[in-house]
Amino acid sequence: xxxxxxxxxxxxxxxxxxxxxxxxxxxxxxxxxxxxxxxxxxxxxxxxxxxxxxxxxxxxxxxxxxxxxxxxxxxxxxxxxxxxxxxxxxxxxxxxxxxxxxxxxxxxxxxxxxxxxxxxxxxxxxxxxxxxxxxxx
Length: 137
What we know:
This protein is of the alpha+beta class. It folds into two domains: 7-76, 2-Layer Sandwich (Signal recognition particle alu RNA binding heterodimer, srp9/1), CATH 3.30.720.100; 78-137, 2,3-Dihydroxybiphenyl 1,2-Dioxygenase, domain 1 (Roll). It is built from three helices and eight strands; from the N terminus they run E-H-E-H-E-E-E-H-E-E-E. Strands 2-3-4-1-5-8-7-6 form an eight-stranded mixed sheet. It is globular. The protein starts with a strand and ends in a 5-residue tail after the last strand.
């Protein structure tokens, strides 16, 4: 799989409605995963969106999620740039360069969904997420 770069949007509890609207606008295939499905979470946050991905016929990729439980939503930090794919060497190289001189908010490590993932803000204040797909998934 080729590495892809796309916007990743954060929402304050309305990710499902927003991503479904974007699907109406752009067409394509929308996948939605809730916090409950991913980690067995129960309660009011279980139905919130942990990860959404819209892939359009024109080749657009738009991702998004509700702000994770325990984190505060802020419109000023409602986006990140996402890098994802299965080329571990390439993506780790990007990660090293992007995080150098910046702030790491989530270290690059294996996550509960099976991928290796990290999040940082580069030295210019741009938030980045890097996801290395689990080749066994």
